[in-house]
Design brief:
There is one protein chain. This protein is α/β, with parallel strands linked by helices. It folds into 3 domains: about 190 residues, Rossmann fold (3-Layer(aba) Sandwich), CATH 3.40.50; about 180 residues, no CATH class; about 80 residues. Helices cover about 50% and strands about 10% of the residues. It is built from 27 helices and 11 strands. The protein has a 6-stranded mixed β-sheet. The protein has a 3-stranded antiparallel β-sheet with strand order 1-2-10, with no helix packed on it. It is globular. The two termini are about 40 Å apart. About 0% of the residues have low confidence. Calcium ion (CA) binds next to loops.
């Protein structure tokens, strides 16, 4: 390049300078585009902000995201709450905490419409007892116990049928400084009377079995205030739970678990490492609990090569419909795979010898957990940002899963689905990377984790494709959008590529951190932001590529 063209070029702007008036400075000092508040909301809901990124503290990231959520609520209360519900219910996010936090922000918002929509959505977003407690812990920091909140909490309890409610009450007895007794008392106890079973259960929660009137009734005290509540109406699971607390015999405990659908949270500490008990727990274990307890079950001898337990677990991991119905998130599978193959727990001293069939089934489950993955038949350039910042933080606070590892894993799913793709990796320069679709996820993780760190230039994939005259219908760039090192902005490189190749190539930016930054020009219909590790990302990408 000539000296003058280096000093000024009409179509190439150094990334350290704004190329258009609407660009903003990212945390690395480069200029990029800014996401709308609604797009930020989706990034926040999926990726969360409780872990720091390379550039931003968790506190700063959370504050900025919370402000964006509040602005979105201000502009469109109903639509914003609808997005929170949709992301939460569809299982697009690896963790529920950001949705619960956003819902609490809405429940304390100055706008009546936002508060009403949020409180009405409580049972939809906070589906478990743990979610409810987490919501209460946040919302009580933000607002008082007005009538609306009391009613919403009452509705959380009365809208569930009594067996489902008993299950939640036993499985999550206390979290985040709240118990069901606290919640019911704060809600004001005016629970309405949905059924005799509900009344008995509420009494059991707030006052214990003694208050259920059994004794009073047997003594003939029919006028006692407890006598109206019928102990016999208590769900059977409550009695089974009490019996489980009383026993020390694994055989008896296993029978109680089997016959009453009890979960590992309900098992007393003394029986927590019993193989017999876990063998019983395994049968109806919810999918997410199963993923989290594969190591434990292997350590206790439930899962061994060729065991009935292993056969059943492998069959469940290979069942895509079941994985999605249980809202198993691909990132949850990735974390399970990473932990399980390591042979030791992240915390504590538990160790196990990984069963190879289970490792293989987890590999399969990862692809299956993404929603609606189908080939588009388009020519794709998959470009991984492997710069230093991508190897730093952990996605959604998930242990060991850096944006770098997460990007490679996501790209692998696309490579296994699509026919025509090329893959490249870049920092401030292109980096050689050899990934192929038949490679195990474990191997991909190891390979990508070992790459050296470096600066960032997100224009590199487009420049490379142009230099090599490689025809692509779309570039999929996995990045944290902290680009700053290049002599040209990524969108400028894409414009040159489109023109020189005569292909209206699209750009999909897979955002791997919950910042407001994007290399995608927001008003270019040929560019799309998707959220990294959104379980629905492959579906959105495919739809956009086909359009
Ligand atoms: Ca970087």
């Amino acid at each position: 390049m000539s000296r003058y063209a280096r000093l000024f070029h009409p179509f190439r702007t150094p990334q350290g300078e704004a190329a258009t008036p609407d660009q903003v400075r990212n945390d690395a000092g480069g200029y990029v585009f800014e996401l709308s508040d609604r797009a930020r909301l989706e990034r926040f809901l999926v990726l969360g902000s409780d872990a720091p990124t390379y550039y931003a503290k968790a506190r700063t990231l959370t504050r900025d995201n919370a402000r964006a959520v509040l602005r979105a609520l201000d502009a469109d209360p109903a639509g914003t709450v609808a997005t929170i519900i949709e992301v939460s219910r569809s299982g697009r996010a690896p963790k529920q905490s950001p949705a619960i936090f956003a819902l609490a922000l809405a429940a304390a918002h100055p706008k009546d419409e936002a508060r009403a929509a949020a409180l009405a959505a409580l049972p939809a977003v906070c589906r478990t007892g743990a979610h409810l407690f987490e919501f209460l812990a946040v919302v009580t920091e933000l607002r008082g116990w007005g009538r609306g909140l009391r009613r919403a909490v009452c509705r959380w309890y009365t809208s569930k049928d009594v067996d489902a409610l008993a299950y939640q009450v036993l499985k999550y007895r206390q979290r985040a400084g709240f118990s069901h007794r606290d919640a019911l008392r704060l809600a004001g106890g005016a629970m309405g009377s949905r059924s005799e079973g509900h009344d008995a259960l509420f009494r059991w929660i707030t006052a214990g079995r003694e208050a259920l009137g059994e004794r009073e009734v047997s003594r003939g005290e029919t006028t006692s205030r407890y006598a109206a509540v019928n102990a016999a109406a208590l769900p059977a699971r409550i009695g089974a739970f009490e019996a489980l607390q009383a026993t020390r015999r694994p055989q008896r405990a296993a029978a109680l678990v089997r016959e009453n659908g009890l979960t590992h949270e309900m098992v007393p500490a003394e029986l927590q490492s019993s193989r017999k008990v876990w063998d019983a727990l395994r049968v109806d274990m919810p999918m997410t609990a199963m993923l989290r307890n594969l190591g434990r079950m292997t350590s206790y001898g439930v899962l061994t090569q060729g065991s009935e337990g292993t056969r059943a677990v492998v069959a469940r991991l290979r069942d895509g419909a079941r994985l999605q119905k249980a809202r198993v998130h691909p990132l949850g599978v990735l974390v399970a795979l990473n932990t399980y193959r390591s042979g030791k727990g992240v915390r504590g001293s538990l160790t196990w010898k990984p069963v190879p069939q289970i490792v293989a089934a987890l590999e399969e489950a990862f692809d299956l957990a993404f929603h609606g993955v189908e080939p588009t038949g388009k020519r794709l350039c998959l470009a991984l940002d492997v710069s230093g910042s991508m190897g730093f933080s952990e996605i959604a606070g998930m242990t060991g899963i850096t944006p770098r590892v997460g990007s490679a894993a996501m790209a692998l799913t696309t490579m296994r689905t699509e026919e025509a793709w090329s893959i490249c990796a870049f920092a401030s320069e292109l980096r050689p990377v050899t990934l192929h679709p038949r490679m195990a996820l474990s191997e991909v993780i190891d390979r990508v984790s070992g790459l050296p760190f470096g600066g960032t230039d997100c224009a590199k994939p487009m420049q490379w494709a142009l230099q090599q005259r490689l025809p692509f219908d779309g570039f999929v760039v996995y990045t944290d959008n902290e680009t700053c090192a290049g002599r040209e902005h990524p969108f400028e490189a894409l414009a040159r590529y489109r023109q020189a190749m005569g292909i209206p190539a699209k750009l999909i930016v897979v955002g791997m951190t919950a910042t407001r930054f994007s290399i995608a020009k927001q008003d270019d219909p040929g560019m799309l932001d998707v959220v990294g590790f959104d379980a629905a990302a492959p579906r959105f990408m495919a739809r956009f590529l086909r359009e």
